[in-house]
Amino acid sequence: MTNALRKVTDPELGIDIVNLGLVYGMDIDDSNLVTLDMTLTSVTCPLADQIEDIIRSAVGDVVPDLVINWVWSPPWGAEKITSEGREQLLALGFKV
């Protein structure tokens, strides 16, 4: 599942949602329903629906159903970016 999520990139930053630290948690119940706790870089992100569609497409072959639980507390911050994500952002010219 995590490998599928690594294929989902933030449309604005071009870095996957796992390395950006947007995925806060994941639970898979006995019926294989996945609940994904995640956030976005901003509560007012205009691309939320697009990102959700990309996630559903990416995991569709892995899990039969997915619920995204949008989490706003704690808010996302640059400290949540993984070291791999930081390297990717630096390569793209972002200062992190």
From TrEMBL:
It comes from the Bacteria. It holds the Pfam family FeS_assembly_P. Residues 3-64 form the MIP18 family-like domain. PANTHER family: FE-S PROTEIN MATURATION AUXILIARY FACTOR YITW. This is Metal-sulfur cluster assembly factor.
